[in-house]
Structure formats: C-alpha cells, structure tokens
Design a protein that fits this description.
Elements lengths: L3 E6 L9 H17 L4 E3 L14 H4 L6 H9 L4 E9 L5 E9 L2 E7 L23 E4 L2 E7 L7 H8 L4 E6 L13 H16 L3 E6 L1 E4 L2 E4 L3 E3 L5 E4 L9 E5 L1 H9 L8 H18 L5 H14 L1
Helix pairs in contact: 1-3, 7-8
C-alpha cells in the first residue's frame, strides 16, 4: 500500500436517462485514466443516469449483477473507480447509490441516506433512503463514500471519520443556486466552506466530485476539488465546464495531521451516545407525532442500555 495516490475527478455532464451513452463515456474515461497512471477515478452522483430522472427511475435502475456493473467492474482492474448510479434491489426498491470498484470487484456500495425533498429537489418521491454509513477497506487504506445531501447533515461525515476513514469521497450533483457579491454561485461558496470544515476538523482528505451540464433546465456548477487534512485545497476543477482535474495526494498527511491535532482521538463517544439517547427520549415524550418506527428504535435503544 502506497501513501501516494494519483486521483482524477471525472467532472462530466451525464446524458439524462441515457445509460448506454453514459456507460461508454465512463469506460472511456477509465481506460484513459489507467493508461495515464491514475490510481483512483471518481465520478459524480448518478453519473450513469443523470439527475432529474423523476418517473424514469425504474427504467434506468440496475442491480449489482447487471451487465453495466460488470463492465465497470472489469474496468476497475486498471484503475479503482467510484461512481453514482440508480440501484434496484431484489425487492424492487430504488436507491441513489454510489459504488466503489477495485480489482474487478464491488468493494462497497453506499446508499444515499438523506434524500432532499424541498425546493427544486424531489428525491424522496422516487428513492428509498439508505440506512447505514460505513467506512471500507481499499488498496489505499480505509475510505468512506457519501452522496451529496448526506454531507449537509453533520453526523454523517463524523460517523465516517469515527469508523476509521482517512479519505471521504463525496459524489455530488450540486445545482447552481443564487449569486454572491463576487458573482459566484452561492451554492458553490457554501459547498467549499463545508468541505474545508470537514477536512480540517476531521483531519481527513475530502474528494468532492461534482457534475456539470444541465438537466431539465437546472445547471450544475462543477468546481470539483480535493481538500487535504490541513484544510488546503490540493486540487480544483473548473466551474461549469467539463474537466478531469488530476493530482497525487499524500495519505501520510492524515497521520501527520492527526498527531499534530488529535481531534478525533479526543472525541468522547460515551458522552455523545448518552446525550443523543437523552435527546431522543425527550423528543419521544414531547412529540406526539413521532412515528411508530422512531418510537420502536427509541425503545430498542433504551432496552440495550438497560
């Protein structure tokens, strides 16, 4: 296992609903990456399908043993690959998922936990929510993957770091929303502040792969980047245009930063767990509209504590 990893972010514009076209572009990108010494190739959220799918979700969904997945698995023999797709499970649920492929195998699948259903977003109408956050072993060390909105909920990256991840791959389809006083998209500025905060406070690499192009009149701003554990932007993609920013990263920097700033070492998990249990119990008592599922989870947690 080498500390030096050459990472490329495939900042592309997926063709909406056109899986064959997107697959061929991704396979071509994988061949080019392998030929040019890239170790890890990261695609955006829903790279295989495009984002604004709505009722077409079932038409573009694939199971994990699909021909499309098998083709990408084969491509991962030359370069490790992370990409977003619509996953169909055997019980015919549909997830906004991210897969990590390596040495011809599916190493890990993350199902998006938080589905935005507000403003221009309507994912909750079409997808099921993921129910876990796990770090996983790669040939480079222990990584984790999240999908877009997951990162806006503070506990999710925190859990990934506590589970041992030294790098967080964030696959995104971030739309352009609003302009700041300098003419930049407010959404891009917000994302950049957020990623820097996670990288420095969790002392881990954050690799952000965001798409470009348009879906149904919505523009996506790109600006993919890598932020290192010291909070420095190590790599930056262009705004609004396709790009394939590529650079080596030094994973030993995680070790050095965690020695110098041992924030994760000093986390007080028993306190966090106890206070969350207290807050959950308080909500259960004060919110009569709590769902049966949440009530059952609360009661199960209480039983385990006893």
């Amino acid at each position: 296992m080498s500390d030096r990893v050459v990472v490329r972010i495939a900042q592309l514009a997926p063709a909406l609903g056109d899986v064959p076209t997107n697959l061929e572009r991704m396979l071509s990108a994988a061949r080019d990456a392998a030929a040019n010494g890239v170790d890890l190739l990261v695609f955006p959220e829903l790279a295989l399908t495009g984002y604004a799918l709505r009722d077409h979700v079932p038409e573009v969904a694939i199971p994990l043993d699909s021909p499309e997945m098998n083709a990408l698995r084969e491509a991962s023999r030359g370069v490790s690959i992370a990409f977003g797709f619509v996953e169909e499970t055997p019980d015919h649920r549909f997830f906004n998922s991210a897969a990590y492929l390596e040495h011809g195998e599916i190493v890990h699948v993350h199902r998006k936990v938080h589905l935005p259903t507000y403003g221009l977003f309507e994912e909750g109408r079409y997808f099921a929510s993921g129910e876990s956050v796990r770090a996983f072993e790669t040939r480079f060390g222990r990584f984790a993957m999240l999908v877009c909105e997951d990162v806006w909920h503070l506990p999710i990256p925190y859990l990934a770091a506590l589970d041992g991840a030294i790098a967080l791959l964030v696959l995104s389809a971030g739309p352009t929303r609003g302009l700041d006083h300098e003419g930049h998209a407010k959404s891009s500025s917000a994302w950049e502040r957020l990623l820097l905060t996670y990288a420095s406070s969790l002392t881990m690499y954050v690799v952000y792969a965001n798409r470009v192009g348009f879906d149904d009149g919505v523009e996506f701003w790109g600006g993919s980047e890598i932020v290192d554990p010291a909070g420095t932007v190590a790599l930056k993609g262009r705004y609004h245009d396709p790009d394939q920013p590529t650079a080596p990263i030094d994973l030993d920097l995680v070790r050095r930063e965690r020695i110098q700033t041992p924030l994760l070492r000093d986390e007080r998990l028993p306190l966090v767990i106890a206070e969350l249990a207290r807050i959950q119990e308080k909500r259960r008592e004060t919110l009569p509209g709590l769902s049966a599922e949440d009530r059952q989870r609360t009661e199960s947690s209480a039983e385990e504590r006893e």
